[in-house]
Amino acid sequence: MIIEITGDGFLYNMVRIIAGTLVEAGDGRRTPESVAEAIQSRDRANAGFTAPPQGLYLKEIYFE
């Protein structure tokens, strides 16, 4: 599984939390609607687990 996330800033463990939430949705433990609700709520308690750091890497940095 490859998950690419692009942004102009990230909070501590944010990418790992996003990945964990998407894995839960892919496994059927969470609906796509619940993923949208978790994002809109801006409440960490509504998101999925924090994915482990193994395999996570910084691919590229863009400068303007």
Short description:
The protein contains two helices and no strands. By secondary structure, it is mainly alpha-helical. The protein is globular, with a radius of gyration of 12 Å.
Task: Give structural notes.
The chain has 64 residues and is mainly alpha-helical. It has a domain of 33 residues. Helix content is 36%, strand content 0%. The chain is built from two helices and no strands. The longest helix has 13 residues.
Low-confidence stretches: none
What is the global morphology? globular
Mean pLDDT: 94
Element string (H = helix, E = strand): HH
How would you describe this structure in keywords?
64 residues; mainly alpha
Give the helices and strands, then pairings:
Blueprint: H1 14-26, H2 32-41
